[in-house]
Design brief:
Blueprint lengths: L2 E5 L29 E2 L50 E2 L6 E10 L13 E11 L5 E11 L4 H4 L2 E4 L2 E2 L3 E7 L6 E5 L5 E4 L4 H8 L3 H6 L9 E11 L8 E7 L5 E6 L3 E5 L3 E7 L11 E7 L6 E5 L14 E10 H15 L10 H14 L16 H10 L2 E11 L4 E10 L16 E6 L7 E10 L4 E6 L11 E4 L5 E8 L2
Parallel strand pairs: 4-23
Antiparallel strand pairs: 1-15, 2-9, 3-6, 4-5, 5-21, 6-20, 7-8, 7-21, 9-20, 10-11, 12-17, 12-19, 13-16, 13-18, 14-17, 15-16, 22-26, 23-25, 24-26
Helix pairs in contact: 5-6
Length: about 500
């Protein structure tokens, strides 16, 4: 009989996991509630990924570091890619609206105490002109790359004619993965991988418009009635620091699915046997005491509770005196998930405090379950064990494109100015990698990806360049000659700038 055992020996340090991870873009299956969020009414969450520890694959290549000429046509592939700055677009295209765009990168130090330049203050500015004889009342949309976890730092400030506006935020599906974006499955069960380590990945993701359309569609709902087994009142002999309790039972995998929260190990057999185990929480670990099994479909019948000296749930390793109270209830799955999301946020502290509503994050978690979790028609291998923490964590940390929507009025024969101000983190290679790009920061912009605007003019400028040198670019800046403002070609899709801070 084949069996598979899983044991998370690192559970006791989960709250120390701080590495980012990425996953793929999503497509809705159902539509019930609108996923709108007014920024002014948002609540604050503390989110920290607990299992996302793998960084995106990517390797630097390209021309040698030089004086900043434009001969290096594509830019470097960085290990950590921050995504490009995207252009403004309109919710519905309008041929009477003509646009001019200027993007500026300000490399001044954040404070006088700063030791080096890291990131740039970006001002992405637009003049929209109306060539018709009627006022145009339309919805503008500003996309930006980011994640829920870092949303507080990444959120652009949008102004119309120098007056700040409060857009509504929409979250697109997942933009990145541990190895890239998952494409359609092949007949042999493998997956096509689209790397998101450069702007071309975003181009493949967004250029047909479906990604943005999905971002504005409603989230699915978790309306299923589920059976929940809640574990409380934990007891174990004090001399066993890793005392473990396990629950075991047998299901029909065609009729029953099990989600788990707060468990550390599992055993899965082809005959339907399941064993889930957890380290018995100590009194000082009460914040880790939430432990639930969620049964979707036919309920389990008989189950056994066993105690063990440690995480090895094997014959000969049993331990007397291990116990817990198990309470059975029937609940709506969305209610359970809302509870677990709240519990997750309480358990894991983080320096990242993203601004996001509970409903929006629940919707994104729900979307994840329908696309890749146990509620998907084709569950990804890494989510087949129903670990709810993984879904919550990765919903929080993984990259996506957000959209800010706001109304504008462009007067007949007149124009308005729109600006988006943001701090843009650079793309970079890790210092321990031995890369030739060590210490180099990359900044990308795209001129028309995802936009339906007609651009009559594009310009770019650099501000506060005393502390940087340009290594590679295709903008045409020349710091030695004082050329810090340049005209760009609307026909060129992608511009890149790679700089090195001066000591």
């Amino acid at each position: 009989m084949k069996e598979k055992k899983i044991f998370d020996a690192l559970t006791e340090v989960r709250d120390q996991y701080v590495e980012e991870a990425r996953t793929t873009s999503l497509k809705k299956k159902q539509a019930f509630t609108r996923k709108r969020w007014t920024i002014a009414a948002a609540s604050l969450f503390v989110m920290l990924g607990i299992t996302a520890m793998t960084i995106r694959n990517g390797f630097p290549f390209g021309g040698n570091a030089g004086s900043g000429g434009a001969g290096h046509t594509e830019g470097s592939i960085f290990m950590s890619y921050a995504g490009p700055v995207f252009p403004l677009t309109l919710k519905a295209s309008d041929d009477d609206i003509i646009a001019e765009r200027n993007i500026s990168y300000d490399f001044s130090l954040a404070t006088e105490e700063s030791l080096r330049v890291w990131g740039a203050s970006v001002k992405d500015s637009y003049i929209l002109s109306n060539s018709s004889t009627s006022d145009k009342k339309i919805m503008a949309v500003y996309p930006f790359a980011g994640s829920f976890m870092e949303l507080g730092e990444q959120l652009p400030v949008v102004s119309v004619d120098k007056h700040q506006v409060l857009p509504e935020l929409y979250a697109g599906g997942y933009s990145g993965g541990f190895t890239g974006v998952y494409g359609s499955d092949n007949p042999d069960g493998s997956e096509n991988i689209l790397q998101l380590d450069s702007w071309e990945g975003y181009k493949s993701l967004m250029e047909d418009g479906n990604y943005q359309n999905n971002a504005f569609s409603p989230y699915p709902e978790l309306s299923q009635q589920v059976t929940v087994y809640t574990f409380t009142g934990f007891q174990a002999p004090e001399e066993y620091d890793a005392a473990t309790q396990a629950i075991s039972f047998t299901i029909d995998p065609d009729k029953t699915m099990i989600m788990q929260y707060g468990f550390n190990g599992g055993e899965y057999r082809e005959d339907g046997f399941r064993r889930f185990s957890y380290f018995v929480p100590r009194p000082e670990q009460r914040h880790r005491s939430t432990k639930l099994l969620i049964v979707i479909g036919d309920d389990i019948t008989d189950y056994n509770l066993e105690g063990y000296k440690n995480g090895a749930c094997e014959a000969g390793n049993e331990l007397e005196g291990v116990s817990a109270t198990v309470t059975r209830s029937v609940q709506d799955l969305s209610q359970v998930m809302r509870q677990l999301i709240g519990d997750f946020f309480e358990q894991y502290d983080s320096e990242y405090v993203p601004v996001v509503s509970k409903d929006m994050f629940l919707g994104a978690v729900t979307e994840f379950f329908y696309q890749y979790g146990l509620l998907s028609e084709s569950v990804r291998d890494r989510y087949q064990y129903g670990m709810v923490e993984d879904i919550i964590s990765e919903t929080n940390t993984l990259d996506r494109v957000f959209y800010l929507e706001f109304p504008i009025t462009v007067p007949a024969g007149g124009s308005i100015t729109i600006t988006a101000d943001m701090h843009k983190e650079p793309s970079y290679d890790f210092y321990c990698s031995g890369s030739d790009n060590k210490g180099i920061q990359g900044y990308d912009m795209v001129t028309r990806l995802g936009s339906n605007l007609l651009f009559a003019r594009l310009t770019a400028e650099l501000i506060s360049t005393e502390r940087i040198e340009i290594v590679r670019q295709n903008f045409g800046f020349d710091l030695s000659q004082g050329v810090t403002r340049v005209e760009l070609s609307p026909g060129l899709e992608h511009y890149y700038l790679e700089i090195r801070p001066l000591e």
